[in-house]
Amino acid sequence: MTDLLLDKVSFSYPDGTKALEDFSLSVRTGERVAIVGQNGAGKTTAVKLMNGLLKPTSGTVLVGDWDTRRYSTAQVSKKVGYVFQNPDDQIFHNDVESEVRFGPKNMKFDVKRVDELTRWAMDICGIAGFAEENPYNLPYSERKFVTIASVLAMDSDIIILDEPTAGQDKIGLKILGHLLDTLEQKGKTVITITHDMEFVTDYFQRIIVMATRQLVADDQANKIFYDAEILEKSMLKPPAVAQMAKMLDFPDGILSKQQLINAILQQRTGH
Ligand SMILES: Nc1ncnc2c1ncn2[C@@H]1O[C@H](COP(=O)(O)OP(=O)(O)OP(=O)(O)O)[C@@H](O)[C@H]1O
C-alpha cells in the first residue's frame, strides 16, 4: 500500500523558473487519476516530484511514509514508475525485449519473475510481436508502448504515464484503455497526464486540473467540463459531446455519446 501526498509543494528550476506553487494533492492506493491543463501549467513538474526525479523547493512529497527528500531518485522510482513524455529520453537498448527486461532485472527480481513480467508487459502493450526489433525502427506510437512496458515490468505500486495518448490512433487508445483497466484490477495507482479530453471522459472519474503552476480543480469529469469558471481558468476545451449537449441546452453532466443520444430521444418523445 503506497499512498501519495503532495503537501503545499512549490518548485523552481535552477534557472529560477517557478513551475509549481503551493500545490497539494493526495492520491490513495489503487486510484486512477488524470491530470489535465494547458502547456506549461506544471503537470510534468508535478509528476517528476512524485517519483523523486525532482525534490520540492518547499513543502513535502510523501510516497507512502517516505519523504522523497530523504531518498534517492533510484529508491523512489522503485515505488513510483514514470513513463517519460518523450520515449526517446528513456530508450537505450537495441532491442525491445532487452529494453523491457532491464527494469525488473535491475530490481533484482528472480529470473522467473523477470521473464513473467517482461512477457506480460509486452503483451499488454501490444508489442510482443516486435520483441527482437530495434525500438528506433518502430514508429513513435509503438516506441511509446515500449517505454510503457519497460515501466510496467518493474511492477511498481504507482505508475505515472506522461501523455501516453500523444500520437496514438484508435487502436493505441484502446490498448491504453485496456491497460488502465488491468492495472486497476491489480490494485495499482495510475496517474496520467493527457491533453485528450475524450480519453479522459472515457477512462477517468477523478480529474486534476492545473493552470499556471497551481491546482484549479480536483473533481469528477461531469462537474469539471460543465464548470465555466474552471474551464476559463484552465483554458480547457470540453469533449465534443459536452460541447454539443451545452449547445442543445441539455442538463449538465452529459459526457458520453449514449447519454447524449438518450437526452435527444427523451426530448423527442417527451419522456
Ligand atoms: N528544465 C527546466 N528548466 C527551466 N524551466 C523549466 C524546465 N522544465 C520545465 N520548465 C518550465 O516550468 C513550467 C512548467 O513546465 P511543465 O513541463 O511542468 O508543464 P506541463 O504542464 O507539463 O506542460 P506540457 O503540457 O507542455 O508538457 C513551464 O514554464 C516550463 O517552461
TrEMBL record:
User: Which keywords accompany this UniProt record?
Assistant: ATP-binding, Cell membrane, Membrane, Nucleotide-binding, Translocase, Transport
SMART domains per the record?
AAA
Q: Domain named ABC transporter: which ranges?
A: 4-237
Pfam families from the UniProt entry: ABC_tran
User: Would I find Membrane among this entry's keywords?
Assistant: yes
The record, for SUPFAM superfamilies, names: P-loop containing nucleoside triphosphate hydrolases
Query: Which family does this protein fall into?
Result: Belongs to the ABC transporter superfamily.
Q: What is the name listed in the Swiss-Prot or TrEMBL entry for this protein?
A: ABC transporter ATP-binding protein
